[in-house]
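pipeline/complex-builder :: batch 7 item 3
reading input block
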Amino acid sequence: MAAMSFEISLIRRMGDRRIAVEVHAGPGVTALFGPSGAGKTSVLNMVAGLLRPDRGRIAVAGETLFDSTAGIDLPPARRRIGYIFQDARLFPHMRVRANLTYGSHGRTSLLSLDEAVDLLGIAPLLDRWPATLSGGEAQRVAIGRALLSGPRCLLMDEPLTSLDAARREEILTLIERVRDRTALPILYISHDRAEVDRLAAHVIAMPL
Amino acid sequence: MTIFDLTTDDWGVIALSLKVSLVAVGAMLPLAFALAWALARGRFPGKLLLDALVHLPLVVPPVVTGWLLLLLFGARGPAGAWLESWFGVSVMFRWTGAALAAAIMAMPLMVRAMRLSIEAVDRRLEDAALTLGAGRWRAFLTITLPLSVPGIAAGTVLGFARSIGEFGATITFVSNIPGETRTLPLAIYGALQVPGGEGAVARLAIISILLSLGALLASEILARRMGGGHGRHVL
């Protein structure tokens, strides 16, 4: 029996709010869909190990990353999660090439640098500084950086938010290409129904 | 005679000043960074007190700082007695004492500049590094440290300039001994006390100004080179 892509069951109190999520998803894109303020980003941070759930279990592709009852809590560096943030978060003091290879350090990736560069169409950007990139270009590089870190899954936190309509379409097509080419499970956050319908195989609603 | 005809004595004073300041700043650099880190990122009881202690040399009269150093590092002082019995050395009336005084006086400026730049580093970039497989240590070395370089450079230059200019704590702590503790400001002060010393005063004063300007320019160039092509300023 193939392992589920994401098995997430967690509870976390944030101030006076309580986040409780259950995800049991197969391969492909799983969307966490809901209004802003519902705690979607917090869920991704918990999967990535940047935020600790109060209770619960997180497993990705059959590997347990966090389990409060079993006392398992892998540090973020050992979770092998490709996290694509809303704001790209490229390292400003490294050129694009160094950003891309930052996570490939000692890890085998399913794509080589050349293949990733080709897939994302970023060959002309390799020697540029992040400050000189447009929002769409930066997001392409961020996707490449995550892919090259040998991830077992990808997390995408509203990667289209900071882009104009034309760029959105471009990046959306790119994400579809990444999804089909790599077959990595993807946990995708959005508050845009059309985006979710187009990309996702499973949708989990997160109400306020 | 022009003011640029430096005498052997002048050169000696300049060399001593450079030695004292470079040693002071070099020795203080790791300590100041550790303090800046603790104040920027640490959460521990007594943080406010540590903050106040670090800033003390900035607000207390330098004479008082010198006197405190005398109490601590004098032959009967706890630190002085310890150095004497364990290493057989004394900083009293030695250039090392002048460097110690300069380091203490430079500390608040160095810590302040470094702390500001550590606080300015976007911690979400460190998070991104962690998700890319970097351990805490690698994230620090490859992200936080390089991004704080402008502040480290600024702190070092300010500390160096402060050390070159240090007067009150030094003269109180280790006196004004030619060749040992007579740095630029002390030499200028000494020359002002003797009739006909105006020439020496002017020469040494100009050297002081040039040294400070040179340090500022050097740091500005350094910060531009290391800032990744997008102009960052040290001051």
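note: The radius of gyration of chain A is 17 Å.
queue -> next item
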